[in-house]
Design a protein that fits this description.
- The protein has 869 residues and is of the alpha/beta class.
- It has 30 helices and 27 strands.
- The chain has seven domains: 103 residues, 3-Layer(aba) Sandwich (MutS, DNA mismatch repair protein, domain I), CATH 3.40.1170; 134 residues, Nucleotidyltransferase, domain 5 (2-Layer Sandwich); 147 residues, MutS, DNA mismatch repair protein, Chain A, domain 3 (Orthogonal Bundle), CATH 1.10.1420.10; 83 residues, Orthogonal Bundle (MutS, DNA mismatch repair protein, Chain A, domain 3), CATH 1.10.1420.10; 206 residues, P-loop containing nucleotide triphosphate hydrolases (Rossmann fold); 34 residues, no CATH class; 34 residues, no CATH class.
- It has a seven-stranded mixed beta sheet, with helices on both faces.
- Helix 24 links the parallel strand 23 and strand 24.
- Helix 6 crosses helix 7, helix 11 packs across helix 21 and helix 27 packs antiparallel against helix 28.
Length: 869
């Protein structure tokens, strides 16, 4: 919004307009006294989002303008609502004390809060990172970076358009920045799914970005971070640092390193697969993502780390085995697990606390949390060190107790501090002599006044003398008229009353000045000591960030162990073969949703590259084909995250890519047909294969005609089987029974079906995978179970029997136009001449007035008619 113009611009509005002009597109919260005010269009927006009163300033005058505001102390309540509504919010504070300024107070923007840049606990999700992403679109390669300013985590990657899209879907940034010239391409890729901001194109320059990064990390090059060769990623990361400066985030010492997301280290999960498998988000109403089952972490750092592990499963056997070993250790040694878990539960969000230290935004109560959390590290370190495992001892050595910081906080900060620094009672006695003296004056004032009163009574013999206080005179002595002759000459008369007089003394005035200034001075001194304490804590930023990383890792591993125990998971065997062998595998999410007493039906899956590469799975809808496909992928991914798996046993030859084509897509809302979505996702699979890929395809071709669908599905299976370079492991669920023929033609294709049991006209879903193809789809039975009217079900059966009969006669001559026409349904009564007679008889009866006896007589008449031949 442009600045607010008015015919008569007051000095305050002139200052407002000048500041507003510097932050176009941001909603400006303008501090005026004890309120944050918004003006003009900002006020209209704020009133709507915050549900606060919209008024007008200068109503009826030439300078009339909309106004909406809230008390400054309510900022933490109102700011999150504005940011979550997608607004960038510039916070403009008073930079001078109004008491000591004549005219307009100096003001300036102290922070520009955006959806991707915030330290406010009410804006941030405790268990999720709040990433700002930056995208640079190069000629052939994309660069992307992710920064969580609240934790200091900074990641970069570069690769194909699809790779960057997949990372953005997994990291789910709260805001994305990009260059203005690429807006058109950006909007095609991302639509309006994210809060965005476009930067000037010059920001996305390599030299500028490189200099930004080496200045931030105080290094001569970026080789030490392993990103020196990632040109596009460097450009994206440099733009993030520029954006931090633009938004007044100048304290960035906690952003001390940058990590590369190496495509070669992690399993490729394309954006369709992340969505279809519902790993960290469910896209269905009431759906449960996998993370809800696996996340038993007890710290915010652990929960955020687990989310990253889940979207980036490992491909390196040694790294996977290291995690599995530690999960196994905690799984078997519950005493050790409990020794770590109990103190871990008491640790606050170390990552975000130390980031607040870096930007000087930590409050006294959070400083105490930091101290208590650091104290809890000692028993964890001790428990790890006494274990014989080298891996656990290595983790213990990476923990820092930060004793000097803990002791300093313990020595200086009171235990009952408030959240606000300016509310006093922060610092312990004995830390500062002046502070102690001021406390005596401020908090022992009544005793001192009583002493003065006693002394003056003794001196004057005025027993009714009393000392009081008001805002006009301050402290004063009050004497009744009967005693005013006893008043000493050094008392100064200030006021005459009906019943007496009020006096002041030099001693009272001196003390009054002391007591009134003492509290102000107290606050200043306490703030100085507290700020020095915070500054001292900045020396420990690297150590505490390291602690947070180690504790997050431990939390995730303990979570895996606890989930494994609770749900009867088994340790998978990881190797470099091309075999996937799952014994009695279960779906980790579905089995947790079953009604009490019902157990999940487990299934075996075996896939390799030489004998059984592709399983063609037939069976009716609702029989469990989709669940079987998804559980196979989830078991593989869980294993490569370092988790135990829901199975009796599992041997997992490392998978490098998981592709899925299952379920409906949200692209339908963008106007793409079901079939187009199917084919787009299938094309992505076929064009990105590898020998270690795991492919899950469910009902390919259902979005088009039967013959087209069968033909496409058939060709896809052939392509996967006969690929000249790769033999990707594939589960192919279909309702096209014609594909069972492929087993006879292709040696590594095997037919399986999800069994059902027919009992009369009913079917029971056994949910068990068995060898061989399925002869029937049982679609009509499923329709009946779903509550389709019987008349429709009977007609469908009639058509089915005709088509099956014709199929055996001559497949080529079968035509839908020869399907028998539906027979008109005739009522049993309409075929009988007695029906009309009964109808006429009953039509004359008024049910509302007929007596029971008359009703019996009429019924007798009906029986008589029916007995006629």
């Amino acid at each position: 919004m442009s600045e607010v113009k008015s015919a008569v611009e007051t000095p305050l509005m002139k200052q407002y307009n000048a500041i507003k002009a510097k932050y176009p597109g941001a909603l400006l919260l303008f501090r005026v006294g004890d309120f944050y005010e918004t003006f003009g269009q900002d006020a209209i927006t704020a009133a709507k989002v915050l549900d606060i009163v919209l008024t007008k300033r200068g109503s009826g005058s030439a300078s009339e303008i909309e106004l909406a505001g809230f008390p400054h102390h309510a900022l933490d309540n109102y700011l999150p609502k504005l940011v979550r509504a997608g607004h960038r919010v510039a916070i403009c504070d008073q930079l001078e004390d109004p008491r000591f300024v004549k005219g307009i107070v100096k003001r300036g923007v102290t922070e520009l809060v955006t959806p991707g840049l915030s330290f406010n606990d009410n804006v941030l999700e405790r268990k999720q990172n709040n990433f700002l992403a930056s995208v640079f679109m190069g000629k052939n390669t994309f660069g992307v970076s992710f920064l969580d300013v609240s934790t200091g985590e900074f990641y970069v990657a570069q690769g194909s358009e699809n790779y960057v899209l997949k990372l953005i879907q997994g990291f789910a940034p709260s805001e994305i920045i990009f260059g203005k010239q690429t807006r058109g391409h950006f909007e095609v890729l991302f639509g309006d799914d994210y809060s965005t901001f476009a930067l000037d194109e010059w920001v996305y320059g390599y030299d500028y970005a490189y200099e930004k990064l080496i200045n931030q990390f105080k290094t001569a090059s970026l080789k030490g971070f392993g990103i020196d060769e990632l040109g596009e990623a460097i450009i994206a990361a440099g733009a993030v640092l520029h954006y931090l400066e633009d938004t007044e985030h100048k304290d960035t010492s906690h952003i001390s390193s940058i990590s590369r997301i190496d495509e070669d280290k992690f399993v490729w999960l394309d954006k369709f697969t992340i969505r279809n498998l519902e790993i960290v988000h469910s896209y269905n109403d009431g759906g449960v993502p996998l993370i809800d089952v696996l996340d038993c972490t007890v710290t915010p750092m652990g929960s955020r780390q687990l989310r990253k592990w889940m979207i980036l499963p490992l491909k390196e056997k040694s790294a996977i085995e290291e995690r599995l070993f530690m999960v196994d250790t905690f799984f078997k040694d519950r005493v050790l697990a409990d020794k770590i878990l109990e103190p871990l539960k008491q640790i606050a969000d170390l990552e975000r606390l130390i980031s607040k230290v870096a930007v000087n935004r930590i409050n006294p109560r959070e400083m105490l949390q930091l101290k208590k959390s650091l104290r809890c590290i000692q028993p964890i370190q001790q428990a790890l060190r006494v274990h014989q495992s080298a891996e656990l001892k290595k983790l213990a050595d990476q923990l820092h107790l930060c004793e000097f910081l803990v002791e300093k906080i313990e020595q200086e900060l009171r235990e009952d501090v408030s959240i606000m620094v300016n509310q006093g009672n922060l610092i312990k006695d004995g830390i500062d002599a002046e502070l102690d003296e001021l406390r005596k004056i401020a908090f022992s004032g009544k005793d001192y006044l009583i002493q003065i009163q006693k002394r003056e009574i003794e001196r004057t013999s005025i027993n009714s003398l009393k000392i009081s206080y008001n805002k006009v005179f301050g402290y004063y002595l009050e004497v009744s008229n009967a005693n005013k002759e006893k008043v000493p000459s050094d008392w100064i008369r200030k006021q005459t009353l009906v019943n007496g007089e009020r006096y002041i003394t030099e001693e009272l005035k001196v003390y009054e000045e002391k007591i009134l200034n003492a509290e102000d001075k107290l606050v200043v001194i306490e703030q100085r000591i507290f700020n020095a304490l915070v500054h001292h804590a900045t020396d420990f930023i690297p150590q505490i960030q390291q602690n947070a990383r180690v504790l997050a890792q431990l939390d995730c591993l303990l979570s895996f162990a606890r989930v494994a125990q609770a749900n009867r998971y088994a340790r998978p065997s990881i190797d470099d073969s091309l075999v996937l062998d799952i014994k009695s595998g279960r779906h980790p999410v579905i089995e947790k949703q079953l009604p009490v007493g019902e157990t999940y039906v487990p299934n075996d899956i075996f896939l390799d590259s030489t004998k059984q590469q592709i399983l063609v799975i037939t069976g009716p809808n609702m029989a469990g084909k989709s669940a079987l496909l998804r559980q196979t992928a989830l078991i593989v991914l869980m294993a490569q995250m370092g988790s135990f798996v829901p199975a009796e046993a599992a041997t997992v030859g490392i998978v490098d890519k998981v592709f899925t084509r299952v379920g409906a897509s949200d692209n339908l809302s963008r106007g793409e047909s079901t079939f187009m979505v199917e084919m787009t996702e299938t094309a992505s699979i076929l064009n990105n294969l590898s020998d270690r890929s795991l492919i899950l395809m469910d009902e390919i071709g259902r979005g088009t005609s039967t013959y087209d669908g069968v033909s496409i599905a058939w060709a896809i299976v052939e392509y996967l089987h006969n690929h000249k370079d790769y033999s990707p492991k594939t589960l192919f669920a279909t309702h096209y029974h014609e594909l069972n023929q492929l087993e006879e033609d292709l040696v590594r294709v095997k037919n399986f079906n999800v069994s059902v049991k027919e009992v009369g006209d009913k079917i029971i879903f056994m949910r068990k995978l068995k060898e061989g193809g399925s002869e029937h789809s049982f679609g009509i039975h499923v329709a009946q179970l779903a509550g389709i009217p019987n008349r429709v079900v009977l007609r469908a059966n009639e058509i089915l029997h005709f088509l099956e009969k014709e199929k055996h006669k001559n497949e080529g001559d079968r035509k839908m136009k020869e399907v028998p026409k539906p027979t008109p349904q005739m009522s049993l009564f309409e075929a009988d001449p007695r029906f009309k007679e009964i109808q006429e008889l009953l039509g004359k009866v008024d049910i509302n007035t007929v007596s029971p006896v008359e009703a019996l007589l009429k019924l007798n008449e009906v029986i008589g008619i029916l007995k006629k031949k």
